[in-house]
């Protein structure tokens, strides 16, 4: 055999092996990415959701994809699955996806398709709440700010401009889902969708235009033909076949508006969100489990934990009024992605117990009896003879002995026992058998060496300032591209002003619609004010040191998230709307409101992109202690190597006051440890009706001291950490911490 034919044979062999290899990989890839491509036919009846002919009790958990990073998603979803969750529920965040009209963004944290596919790969279902109103403590309730400036628009009513924009976005999302084959009947994981969000109370308030809008929204959604049921939460006017559902701390007494719709609880609040200036809320898991068991024994067949993982308001996504950066929510998975025990484990055990009862729960209605005071029994018996019972003690104080089928059962106060065979108690909502653990913040052993740069205070005469008579609304100028707007004015003080001789300085009064304000007189800080948790409005009053000649008054007005709901919240204003007056001058009070003002949108540091690696090198930073003087409006930066290991990381910001933080150019959110939590922190017992005012934590402490630094945004070496501080703080005391259990 000649050498050329040996080479020929070898080439053929290599070719065959290569082809086999490619074919194998294609097969593996196809299996991986199409699994599980079982088509789900979804319908419902008065008992439950029906998937492929089978009624189901569905355990669901909210995870909002942009409140974590794609790198965290697989682990969060797996932990939800391990916790007995069947469905992941998320809103769709319009303002994240359409930052300017017609320009869509579905990348990174906003890669909705990737998120849904990740859920699918874990073998779970999706409840997609398209809204597009989301509430959710999310900036502007999920609506893009440009929407507010569409001529003639009114939000959430039968207004053509609004409906056109809403329909375009909903259609965009549905067609994206369809093109990726993500709806159940296409083999995808989405088994239900939501249109609007808690519209019932608004419809009730505005009457006919609201009713017309509801009918329009329902028709529009149904015509999209997704093949899966639509839901309207907290809206008893939901037209057929849309299912109306309940949101709240308890939903056992809720009934859908038609007997042929299943009883669904779209938001079982696992805790509550935190606001800057407010305490944080802890919902004891015994009470949450009690509420869920109570719902299920009363014919409930779908419940969703809002939130199962709350996550972080990364960037500037949190809403007014002053919603904190942490959206931990006391959820079963904590902000950092760790299990919040014993909540996670106790709920997992509840789900196991409920699933043991599932066949009989979905095939029968309970026989209810009241064997004693505050006692209730729900006994389910199927045609085939299976039996399951829920025994309740509603007494908030005392345990009880309850007799069921001649057997005595002892029940702690405010609790339910589950007996999947009507004999054996496998679970009691008040008896925690799963492990407890406490997460801690421990120093990560990384030294941060800081440099600083002072933000410039602009002048009313700057060429690039906008000059107009009168005070302008803030969002109209910033379009919410930044929290900051400068209001600048020059005030002439004649040398014969009386106060120059007496030394009794005039009083400056600035009235603002919110949310926070820093006042500078001739370049010197003169005070900071901010709204309260009752109202974003604020008033600055201070005696100001003015001199003869030209004086510069520079007001830095700051927003902290736009409102996320309420009647016509598109009409709410922010910024210094006046009056602005100077009292104690020769003429008495000088009204500055209608004089010529100059405006500058954003900070100089923002336009220089000081938070990015490229931008940060455009200015000269000062080393050492110069910045430790708690100087307001200062940028700080430090470079560090990531600590080894996988523990989630955070920043202890207790020494700082208010501003924003970035890691490698990505904003991890606003910090505001300077706003201390007011309120009463008395003891916390699980028993008795829960509200968000109960079981508060953190009184007198910063509302949020620690800030999550996602590992996925870090590289092993040379990470750039940038802090912008509005009030002044001591960066040398910022420390990098690991969260460990
Ligand atoms: C609900 C709303 C949710 C969220 C929740 C409070 O009323 O539907 O989006 O805002 O309140 O966390």
Keywords:
alpha+beta; eight-stranded parallel beta barrel; globular; binds beta-D-galactopyranose
Strand order of the largest sheet: 4-5-6-7-8-9-10-12
Helical stretch count?
A: 13
Share of β-strand residues: 25-35%
Which hetero ligands occur in this complex?
A: beta-D-galactopyranose
Describe this structure in words.
- This protein is of the alpha+beta class.
- Helices cover 20% and strands 29% of the residues.
- It contains 13 helices and 40 strands.
- The strands form 9 sheets. It has an 8-stranded parallel barrel with strand order 4-5-6-7-8-9-10-12, surrounded by 4 helices.
- The protein is globular.
- Bound molecules: beta-D-galactopyranose.
- Beta-D-galactopyranose binds next to loops.
Reconstruct the topology from this structure.
Blueprint: H1 3-34, E1 42-44, E2 49-51, E3 54-56, E4 58-63, H2 73-82, E5 87-91, H3 94-97, H4 112-121, E6 125-131, H5 160-179, E7 190-195, H6 200-206, H7 208-223, E8 230-233, E9 243-248, E10 263-269, E11 280-281, H8 285-297, E12 300-309, H9 343-361, E13 367-369, E14 375-381, E15 387-393, E16 400-404, E17 407-411, E18 415-419, E19 427-428, E20 440-443, E21 451-454, E22 466-469, H10 474-478, E23 484-493, H11 498-502, E24 507-512, E25 516-521, E26 524-530, E27 538-543, E28 549-558, E29 580-585, E30 588-591, E31 596-601, H12 604-607, H13 613-616, E32 622-623, E33 634-640, E34 649-652, E35 659-663, E36 666-671, E37 696-697, E38 706-709, E39 719-725, E40 735-740
Parallel strand pairs: 4-5, 4-12, 5-6, 6-7, 7-8, 8-9, 9-10, 10-12
Antiparallel strand pairs: 1-2, 2-3, 11-37, 13-14, 14-15, 15-18, 16-17, 18-19, 20-40, 21-32, 21-33, 22-31, 23-28, 23-31, 24-27, 24-29, 25-26, 25-28, 29-30, 33-39, 34-38, 34-40, 35-36, 35-39
Helix pairs in contact: 6-7, 8-9
Bound molecules: beta-D-galactopyranose.
